[in-house]
Design brief:
The protein has helices spanning 3-15, 20-46, 54-58, 62-78, 85-92, 96-130, 140-167, 170-188, 200-204, 218-242. It is an all-alpha fold. Helix 4 packs antiparallel against helix 8 (170-188). The longest helix has 35 residues, at 96-130. The protein is elongated, with a radius of gyration of 19 Å.
């Protein structure tokens, strides 16, 4: 099969998965909805606090929304390991590198588009709810956060896809990643300068701040998340080459 044919076939698989569209929609609704609600309720009151970061405040909903994108990346890859579908896929596309790349492209593409829509809507909606304390849309930090936040969400979806290729179980990946993000980062997060700064979610979210709380600069933090994702994708590729029928 040609590259374009493989990409199209994987796109059909991805968009017809039960729950894939709902996962993307959930990311948008949770991220934007929580940002608007939180800033409408507390934004102006929190603006006087010394630790308040007006930029991160409008993206606070991404902490919830990213879970939906992690589920999307997991579902897209785990569907191959249900009912022996991987055997049929590899029979149709013997070039495993092409198959894996097409699978990842159909995770990254929708995640990036959805991520851009989500971060832009979060910024505009959260800023409107915050009122005078919000940053201007033309502010350089705001543009960096909108673009960087979309890249961050895409990296988290790919991280989940890579780990799923290693473990070959969507349940196992979600059981690891969701507590890792919701619990471990929360517990270790306040310890700036510690290993917590290098966790994939905390590192990548530095791009959402004007003044990041950790030791990593915004783009450096995003690069750390990219390294985590790259390692997961390489491990998934090794697994696909060595273990799968």
């Amino acid at each position: 099969m040609s590259t374009s044919a493989v990409l199209r076939s994987e796109w059909i698989k991805t968009r017809t998965l039960p729950g894939s569209a709902w996962s993307l929609l959930a990311c948008f609704v949770l991220s934007v909805g929580f940002a608007v609600a939180a800033n409408a309720a507390f934004g102006e009151d929190e603006a006087d606090n010394a630790d308040f970061d007006a930029l991160y405040s409008v993206f606070i909903g991404l902490n919830l929304g990213q879970i939906a994108l992690i589920a999307f990346g997991t579902m897209a890859m785990s569907s191959e390991y249900q009912g022996g579908a991987i055997r049929a896929s590899l029979a149709a596309v013997p070039n495993r590198g092409l198959f894996y790349a097409a699978k990842l492209a159909n995770v990254a593409g929708p995640a990036l588009v959805l991520g851009l829509l989500t971060t832009l809507a979060s910024f505009l909606g959260g800023s409107a709810a915050m009122g005078d304390a919000a940053l201007s849309p033309g502010d350089g930090d705001a543009i960096r956060a909108v673009l960087g936040g979309a890249v961050y969400l895409t990296l988290m979806a790919l991280l989940a896809a890579g780990l799923t290729a290693v473990l070959r179980s969507g349940v196992a990946v979600l059981s690891i990643l969701i507590p890792f993000i919701l619990v471990l980062s929360m517990v270790l997060g306040p310890a700036s300068g510690s290993v917590a700064d290098l966790l994939p979610d905390r590192a990548g979210q530095q791009v959402l701040y004007v003044d990041p709380p950790g030791d990593l600069a915004p783009l450096t933090g995003l690069a750390v998340t990219a390294l985590w994702t790259g390692a997961a994708l390489l491990a998934g590729w090794w697994s696909l080459r060595r273990r799968d029928a």
